[in-house]
Amino acid sequence: MDLRSADLSDASLNEANLSLSSLHRTRLSRANLSQANLRGANFFKASLNDACLDKADLTGANLSFADLRGASLDDANLTGANLTGAKLTQGQFSFHRIDSPTSPHHL
Fold first, then answer.
1. How far apart are CA 4 and CA 15, in angstroms?
2. How far is the C-alpha of 83 from the C-alpha of 107, rounded, in Å?
3. Domain chopping of the chain, boundaries
4. Which residues contact 7 (CB under 8 A, 6 or more apart)?
5. How many CB atoms neighbour CB 89 within 10 A?
6. CATH: 1.20.210.10, 2.160.20.80, 2.60.270.50, 3.30.420.40. Which one for 1-90?
7. pLDDT tens-digit profile, the chain (107 residues)
């Protein structure tokens, strides 16, 4: 699904299937993406500040240079996710699984 540059701020997308979606530069501020299937999605330079990604599956997602300030990723799966250059300050993190060389533990 191509959602590049869309404004989805405050959207309720919990449990949505957005796997392999193009969300390049999409605005998802304060969006609810809890339990969403976001496997392989491209969030390059997306705005996810204050978004809820609790229990989301972000396996293989591209979050490079995404704004995740204040986001909640409790129990999210970030296996193989690219977080290069992502803004992660003031977020809430307790990862389900993370083992990427570009994970927060390696940045």
1. 20
2. 8
3. 1-90
4. 26, 27
5. 9
6. 2.160.20.80
7. 999 999 999 999 999 999 999 999 999 999 999 999 999 999 999 999 999 999 999 999 999 999 999 999 999 999 999 999 999 887 666 655 555 555 555 44
Q: Return d(Cα 75, Cα 90) in angstroms, integer.
A: 17
Q: Degrees (nearest 5) of the Cα angle 8, 13, 15?
A: 160
- In the chain, how long is the greatest CA-to-CA distance? 31
DSSP designation for 70: T
C-alpha separations of 39 from 8, 20, 89, 90 in Å: 19, 6, 23, 24
Tell me the C-alpha distance between 75 and 83, whole Å: 17
52, β-bridge pairs = 32, 72
